[in-house]
Task: structure prediction
Amino acid sequence: KQWYQRRVRGSTGVCVSNEDFENAVRHAVPSGFTFKGYPSQFIHLDARSMFSDCLKSSVCSDIICLRGDGLEFAVKVKLYAYPESVVACWLMIACQYRCIS
Result:
């Protein structure tokens, strides 16, 4: 649950608490479904390298390899440009799927 414990910054620069994130996920994910997500931060824009680095994590690899009913994947990228060609790239790879008992 390391991905869940991190704090993220919105475009306003205001920290979003775990409680805010949890409430947003509850609102967006239908009843009976499970949400899994993996956030990463990079200082480059090389998509192949980002994906390769993400796959080194067992959490991200588990998400990518999931199979199940009603499985949907999502990718969110947020870029922040700074002076002197510095960039911060936040990447979230996530999915939701129906729980089968």
